[in-house]
């Protein structure tokens, strides 16, 4: 939160208290403002919150521990599919939400460890490719495990997932406050997701300044030196993978329940790259960066969709760049230009050193 | 027995295409230590440019002999890809040479998706049929074993290109400069090698190989689309790692081996897993091999360089 507060332009440095309240108020009223533009915008905000959770989790792996993971979406998929298996008519199992969520997180964490073990010795670019391969393997299995035994229902995916049910309170139904006034379910999901994101931020913030967080930073900056001062880099790497995966799993379970169906299409490599771009764009190793990056890059394609499509229609008469192309263009350009022009991201992570002036510039990433 | 020989031929064909692509990866990695993630997409640009040229030629001169048409298409596709390779190096990778280690890789990933997006804008997101200019009626050298003339040409041409490249690297002045740069940039530049030019040259040669491989790949499968470069790119990278990254002979060997493993794997996976997995799992072999090689022998089959690059 402190990082987020100091990232608020102008106000953040002068009056942190006011900036803090500003962020809280914006977070609370955002869906009400979005509602004025149409209900789809509230939905987009809900997805932006899920992306924030993913970006926070990936930031843990990439930003804190320095392990470039290109298969991160696989954990999201594991969470979503766990939810789909255990709370849908597909196998006709309907376990309660509070049981499925931790299970999804646990399976994702397990997948994280499974990925972590073989890649312990790899670094940098090799690690990236192997994790990418892992993500693809998971996706290929999701696509093809409908034969000979139908487990994942193949490319069609699984439908009719149970909605989130908090102790008998069904979030997919509008909340009837009085006879005439009801709160739309999209708002309920928004505030629930907001709570989850807020919880994640608090947790990750505590984690970052803990022994583990400092060990990760040491390992990221110089693995050999970290080993030499007695850090068990093997355990630290596994911890980074499994904790990062846990966030992915939780976000995946929430995604499945929110969207109501899951299919392999949602877990393509493009999504892994999208989340990575969010982290890179916002600033690696920085909670505020992950939040801002996820928010900007989740909202911008949608805003562009609303502006660019009519604009093209009036200018050229046809739509040359459709929304999907625009999104890919935006993400890839964001990634390249950010690396070339501002490699530390929109909100650079502050190094936690006693004498930052002694740090060389290239050591910052 | 026929199936065995048939899979062997299929494996050799696809393996030689992988080998050509893998050469591009391995040359760039050998010199810069960079995985040029966008290499597979250069292949896609090559294939689609060739396709576009052929479409144009068919409209202008319908009676043209297919061999000429294919040659002209290649003559267009190769320079386009070379320019692309040059621009990528010049505009993006060169600036990141001294950047932190994750930066060039992330840029390369962005570059790969940028190329795909641009291709999507130009050529749309549909699958295009790649014109089969060379006869695809299969020959039957042995009873029950089929090989198409396209496949024969692929094997012969890639063998010729690989020999040519080996000669370029081992026998010429510029090849020696490349090897020197790969060994040590700074020392090479002290010896009077223009390392910047050599690195650009490496990218250009790699891109030219990718263009040829792209045309081969598209002719073999008869289709081309904006995302076609991704999988062969990844597999070729696997091949390069399998052979020992940075080593040209290794890339060739790795490519052929990967092609064979894939083709045998796809042919026999159903028997091996008692019908549980089928040939739609073909793509996972490359990843499994990649994982195994990196874990047990990260230097690859022929590599002598240590992969532990901080």
Description of the structure:
The complex is a heterodimer of chains A (365) and B (310). With 365 residues, chain A is mostly helical. Chain A is built from 14 helices and six strands. In chain A, helix 4 packs across helix 12 and helix 5 runs antiparallel to helix 6. The mean pLDDT of chain A is 87. Chain B is mainly alpha-helical. Chain B is 71% helix and 4% strand. Chain B is built from eleven helices and four strands; from the N terminus they run ααααβββααααβααα. Chain B has a two-stranded antiparallel ribbon with strand order 1-4. The longest helix of chain B is centred in the first third of the chain and has 31 residues. The N and C termini of chain B lie far apart (48 Å). Chains A and B meet through helix 7, helix 12 and helix 14 of A and helix 4, helix 9 and helix 11 of B.
Key attributes of the depicted protein:
heterodimer, A: 365 residues, mainly alpha, two-stranded antiparallel sheet, 3% strand, B: 310 residues, 11 helices, 4% strand
> Which strands sit side by side, in order, in the main sheet of chain B?
1-4
| Distinct helical segment count of chain A | 14
H/E series of chain B, N to C? HHHHEEEHHHHEHHH
Catalogue the unreliable spans of chain A. Answer: none
Rounded radius of gyration of chain A (Å): 21 Å
Chain pair sharing the greatest interface = A-B, 51 and 49 residues
- What are the segments of chain B in which pLDDT stays under 50 over at least 5 consecutive residues? 306-310
Helical run tally of chain B: 11
> Gap between N and C termini of chain B, in Å?
48 Å
Largest β sheet strand count, sense and barrel closure of chain B: 2 strands, antiparallel
Shape of chain A: globular
């Amino acid at each position: 939160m402190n990082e987020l507060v100091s990232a608020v332009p102008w106000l953040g440095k002068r009056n942190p208290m006011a900036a803090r309240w500003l962020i809280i108020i914006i977070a609370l009223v955002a869906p009400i403002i979005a509602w004025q533009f149409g209900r789809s915008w509230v939905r987009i905000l809900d997805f932006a919150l899920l992306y924030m959770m993913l970006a926070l989790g990936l930031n843990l792996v990439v930003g804190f521990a320095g392990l470039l993971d290109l298969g991160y979406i696989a954990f999201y998929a594991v969470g979503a599919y766990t939810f789909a298996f255990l709370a849908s008519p597909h196998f006709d199992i309907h376990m309660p939400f509070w049981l499925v969520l931790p299970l999804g997180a646990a399976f994702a964490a397990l997948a994280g460890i499974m990925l972590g073990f073989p890649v312990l010795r790899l670094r940098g670019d090799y690690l990236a490719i192997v994790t990418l391969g892992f993500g693809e393997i998971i996706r290929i299995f999701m696509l093809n495990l409908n034969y000979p035994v139908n487990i994942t229902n193949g490319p069609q995916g699984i439908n009719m997932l149970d909605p989130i049910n908090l102790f008998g309170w069904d979030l997919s139904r509008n909340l009837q406050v009085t006879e005439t006034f009801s709160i739309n379910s999209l708002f309920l999901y928004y505030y629930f997701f907001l709570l989850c994101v807020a919880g994640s931020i608090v947790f990750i913030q505590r984690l970052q300044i803990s022994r583990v967080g400092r060990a990760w930073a040491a390992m990221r900056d110089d693995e050999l030196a970290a080993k030499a001062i007695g850090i068990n880099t093997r355990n630290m790497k596994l911890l980074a993978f499994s904790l990062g995966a846990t966030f992915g799993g939780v976000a995946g379970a929430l995604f499945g329940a929110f969207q109501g169906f899951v299919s392999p299409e949602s877990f393509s490599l493009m999504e892994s790259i999208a989340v990575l771009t969010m982290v890179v764009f916002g600033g690696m190793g920085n909670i505020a960066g992950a939040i801002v990056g996820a928010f900007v890059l989740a909202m911008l394609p949608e805003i562009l969709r609303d502006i660019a499509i009519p604009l093209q229609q009036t200018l050229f008469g046809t739509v040359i760049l459709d929304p999907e192309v625009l999104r890919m263009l935006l993400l890839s350009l964001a990634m390249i230009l950010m690396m070339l022009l501002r490699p530390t991201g929109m909100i650079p992570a502050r190094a936690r050193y006693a004498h930052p002036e002694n740090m060389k510039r290239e050591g910052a990433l | 027995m026929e199936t065995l020989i048939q899979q062997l031929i299929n494996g050799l064909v696809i393996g030689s295409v992988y080998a050509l692509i893998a050469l591009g990866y391995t040359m760039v990695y050998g010199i810069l230590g960079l995985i040029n993630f966008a290499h597979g997409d250069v292949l896609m640009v090559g294939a689609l440019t060739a396709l576009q040229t052929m479409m144009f030629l068919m409209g202008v001169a319908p009676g043209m002999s297919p061999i000429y048409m294919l040659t002209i298409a290649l003559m267009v596709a190769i320079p386009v890809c070379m320019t692309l390779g040059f621009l990528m190096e010049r505009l993006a990778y060169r600036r990141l040479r001294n950047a932190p280690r994750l930066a060039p890789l992330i840029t390369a990933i962005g570059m790969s998706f940028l190329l795909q997006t641009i291709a999507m804008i130009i050529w749309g997101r549909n699958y295009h049929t790649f014109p089969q200019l060379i006869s695809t009626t299969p020959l039957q050298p042995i009873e029950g074993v089929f090989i198409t003339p396209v496949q024969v040409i692929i094997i012969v041409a890639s063998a010729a290109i690989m020999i040519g490249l080996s000669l370029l690297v081992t026998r010429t002045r510029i090849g020696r400069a490349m090897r020197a740069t790969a060994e040590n940039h700074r020392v090479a530049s002290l010896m009077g090698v223009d390392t910047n030019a050599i690195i650009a040259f490496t990218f250009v040669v790699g891109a030219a190989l990718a263009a040829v491989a792209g045309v081969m790949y598209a002719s073999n499968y008869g289709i081309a689309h904006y995302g076609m470069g991704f999988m062969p790119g990844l597999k070729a990278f696997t091949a390069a790692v399998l052979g020992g990254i940075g080593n040209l002979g290794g890339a060739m060997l790795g490519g052929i081996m990967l092609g064979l493993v894939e083709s045998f794997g796809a042919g026999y996976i159903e028997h091996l897993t008692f019908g549980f997995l089928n040939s739609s799992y073909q793509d996972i072999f490359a990843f499994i091999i990649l994982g195994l090689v990196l874990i047990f022998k990260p230097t690859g089959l022929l590599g002598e360089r240590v992969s532990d690059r901080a």
